[in-house]
Structures
1.
Amino acid sequence: MLIVKSLHIWMVVSWFAGLFYLPRIFVNLAMVPAESVAERERLLLMAGKLYKFMTPLAVLAIVLGLWLWFGYGFSGGWLHAKTTLVGLLAVYHWHCGRLLTEFKNGRCSKSHVWFRFYNELPVLVLLAVVFLVVLKPF
Ligand code: HEM
């Protein structure tokens, strides 16, 4: 069980590296002047590669979590609250993919300020999930 949990935490941390950095690239993309085509292409390339890299990490983090849940008999309200929050993270991940497509098509009109707030959402979810899984308050 400890090997599965170690792999779970490893994949969770790796997934979060992408969840923290991709929206930061979106902040920069939203600030790129229209005439800076080379900079925009470079940021789009980085964002595309990062999204492709972080998607299997998300799947592995969730699969290993489910393995812990169903393979080792964990239970409790904390786990339901946690998986609900993880469901939100998965929607956030998917929405980042939508935003990336909008940027690629030149159709993203959201400001860099909007993306700065958007960037903080995974931070808050991580805080809540870590407290839930370590403290198991209910
Ligand atoms: C559907 C997805 C997930 C499920 C079913 C799940 C389930 C679990 C379970 C059953 C444990 C073992 C708890 C224990 O040993 O006390 C665990 C550990 C952990 N999970 Fe998840 N998890 C999921 C996703 C995540 C995500 C997305 C995060 C981060 C935001 C996360 C963070 C952690 C941490 C930090 C631990 C170690 C806690 C400890 O050792 O006390 N998990 N997870």
2.
Amino acid sequence: MAGNAGHASEESAMPVTYRCAIASCHRRSVASCFECERFCCERHLSAVSLVTATSSIRVHVCPTCLYRYRADPEIQPLLTNVATRFLVD
Ligand SMILES: [Zn+2]
Ligand SMILES: [Zn+2]
């Protein structure tokens, strides 16, 4: 009965479930912040569109980074659209 010790299956359909990085929030995270890579739930991530010279990209950021984006005079003009909900497509 000692043959299988330490031979755990590595099968898992989902990656490890992270809690939202916001301390007061206990929701399950859905993605990580584009800037700081903290995992946040759909409530706390905002989908923002950043316009670059050639195209626009949509990223998800946590409240802290969204605040920084909005306060940053260089990033501010690049923010064309801020959705308060997490959007998946
Ligand atoms: Zn962040
Ligand atoms: Zn949250």
